[in-house]
């Protein structure tokens, strides 16, 4: 295993050194605040720019279960925590040795970074939680990996109990060491990617519009709420199984547009590979670090195309660079490449959501922790090179848990009695009569997910246990720009605050530059030196 890991690290270093070269070339900073409309928008804090790096399918324990203690076996890069690093609500106090599940949690090493995806649907996740006993993950969310994943094939459904530590997810552990993280952040509801994507921009998965939705199975929409992964109705690159949300549903983009505040959704592979009879096709591929090509764009990862008001169905490009972040042909939706172009030119939008191409989004089956590390680290290194960094807040978080084991039972703030509920019994997530606004199919909070805050205003080496969920992201944006709440059944009305992770009186002018291939610190301190 030692020799195998050394060979893997050598291949990784070579692959990523080649892969990041174009990004490094592009990352020359531009004019900073000069002419930046985002900097002029009044805010309640010194934060003028929020960048949400929205990744895929990771539970908190899957990445941070043993934080800050890594195993550090021979042949793997070492991780040593700083003195006085706070502990987290992780896999301690017997959960590694006397776990209630049929398979005990175990460490996945760096050579096992590619795995298949686990079952992360709305009902199986509730069944795995088993009324809060958290003891049925191999039975309900575990998925055996086939011959395409030889390094984990023999683990069968027990793979769902696997976790990584700082020897593999070194980048995220090092960001946690130098900035702030939460150990109490949850998916707003149970369910897969689309549920999380809609919640991180609106906190509201109810309100499916029958007029713009078609071919939805019972495991995708229930009682008028999205619980699965149907594609967006307003997207040429969607399948025939689509959902549109009612025009009365609003998202954070609608609120920002109404106030004239710049914002954008930037996604890998958004530029069409071709146009056939007026319909855009999204067939562009990008390579993982092991050389495997993956389709770059995923329609059901794009939340804003579920709303007609914020959709860009034909993937129309902006007229020019000056349009990015503002009203125009693209309607605030862009290919990921436009983000660095605009930021380097000094026009970083006030609010930016970034979705990596599928090879780098961290989703098991098409990506890996090491692939996503390249994307996250390159992006944050780039942002720290900008004059705008002094007024920027970066959030790194995830859309769902992928079904990976996490020991922490989420508080159930919203109950439901739909046919797909199973948390406390057949068709039961508590008493559905108490459902928020009477909307069924939104049992939540769901599984616990990683959440990092990286900014000059982030507390240093800090772990926050304030109860948070995906709607805490739009809630912060609302509060920072004095926007109204989304309302109409949105969870933003009682979302926890991330302000406890920030310190505006004592901003930190240190910068932490990481190696994208290893996640290790290259430079840290003032100016990243």
What report would you give on this structure?
By secondary structure, this protein is of the alpha/beta class. The chain has a single domain (2-457, 471-502), classed as Alkaline Phosphatase, subunit A (3-Layer(aba) Sandwich). It is 20% helix and 14% strand. It contains 12 helices and 22 strands. It has helices spanning 2-19, 21-26, 37-40, 60-64, 122-129, 137-140, 170-178, 193-202, 252-258, 337-344, 369-384, 472-480, and strands at 49-55, 106-107, 162-163, 180-182, 185-186, 221-222, 225-226, 231-232, 242-243, 263-267, 274-276, 279-281, 285-287, 293-295, 333-335, 351-355, 392-398, 451-454, 462-464, 468-469, 510-514, 521-526. Strands 15-10-16-1-17-18-4-19 form an 8-stranded mixed beta sheet, sandwiched between helices. The chain has a two-stranded parallel sheet with strand order 2-3. A two-stranded parallel sheet has the order 5-20. Strand 13 (285-287) and strand 14 (293-295) form a beta hairpin. The chain is globular. It starts with a helix and ends with a strand. Residues 16-35 have low confidence and may be disordered.
């Amino acid at each position: 295993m030692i020799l195998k890991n050394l060979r893997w690290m050598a291949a990784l270093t070579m692959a990523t050194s080649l892969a990041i070269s174009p990004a490094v070339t592009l990352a020359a900073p531009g004019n900073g605040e000069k002419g930046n409309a985002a900097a002029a928008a009044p805010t309640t804090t010194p934060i003028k720019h929020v960048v949400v790096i929205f990744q895929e399918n990771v539970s908190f324990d899957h990445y941070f279960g043993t934080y800050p203690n890594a195993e550090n076996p021979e042949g793997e890069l070492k991780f040593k925590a700083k003195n006085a690093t706070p502990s987290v609500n992780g896999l301690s106090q017997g959960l590694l040795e006397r776990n209630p599940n049929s398979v005990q949690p175990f460490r996945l090493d760096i050579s096992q970074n590619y795995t298949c995806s686990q079952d992360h649907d709305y009902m199986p996740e509730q069944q795995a939680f088993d009324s809060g006993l958290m003891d049925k993950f191999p039975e309900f969310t575990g998925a055996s990996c086939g011959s395409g994943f030889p390094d984990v094939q023999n683990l069968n459904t027990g793979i769902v109990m696997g976790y990584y530590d700082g020897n593999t997810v070194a980048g995220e552990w090092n960001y946690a060491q130098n900035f702030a993280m939460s150990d109490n952040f949850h998916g707003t509801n149970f369910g897969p990617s689309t549920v999380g994507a809609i919640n991180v921009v609106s906190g509201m998965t109810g309100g499916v519009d029958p007029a713009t939705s078609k071919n939805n199975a019972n495991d995708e929409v229930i009682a008028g709420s999205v619980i699965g992964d149907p594609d967006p109705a307003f997207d040429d690159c969607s399948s025939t199984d689509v959902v549109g949300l009612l025009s009365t549903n609003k998202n954070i983009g609608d609120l920002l547009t109404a106030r004239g505040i710049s914002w954008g959704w930037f996604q890998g592979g958004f530029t069409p590979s071709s146009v056939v009879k007026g319909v855009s096709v999204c067939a562009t591929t990008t390579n993982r670090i092991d050389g495997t090509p993956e389709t770059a764009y995923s329609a059901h990862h794009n939340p804003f195309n579920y709303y007609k008001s914020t959709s860009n169905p034909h993937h129309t490009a902006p007229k020019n660079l000056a349009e990015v972040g503002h009203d125009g042909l693209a309607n605030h939706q862009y290919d990921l490449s436009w983000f660095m172009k605009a930021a380097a030119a000094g026009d970083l939008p006030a609010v930016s959501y970034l979705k990596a191409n599928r090879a780098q989004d961290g989703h098991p089956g098409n990506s890996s922790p090491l692939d996503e590390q390249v994307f996250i680290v390159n992006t944050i290194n780039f942002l720290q090179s900008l004059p705008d960094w002094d007024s920027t807040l970066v959030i790194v978080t995830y859309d769902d848990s992928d079904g990976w084991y996490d020991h922490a039972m989420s508080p159930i703030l919203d109950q439901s009695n739909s046919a797909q509920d199973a948390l406390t019994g057949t068709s039961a997530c508590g008493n559905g009569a108490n459902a928020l606004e009477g909307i069924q199919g939104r049992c939540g909070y769901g599984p616990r997910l990683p959440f990092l805050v990286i900014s000059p205003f982030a507390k240093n080496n800090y772990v926050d246990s304030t109860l948070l969920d995906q709607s805490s992201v739009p809630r912060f944006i609302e509060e920072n720009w004095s926007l109204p709440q989304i309302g109409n059944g949105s969870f933003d009305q009682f979302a926890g605050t991330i302000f406890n992770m920030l310190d505006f009186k004592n901003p930190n002018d240190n910068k932490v530059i990481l190696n994208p291939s290893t996640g290790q610190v290259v430079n840290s301190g003032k100016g990243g030196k």
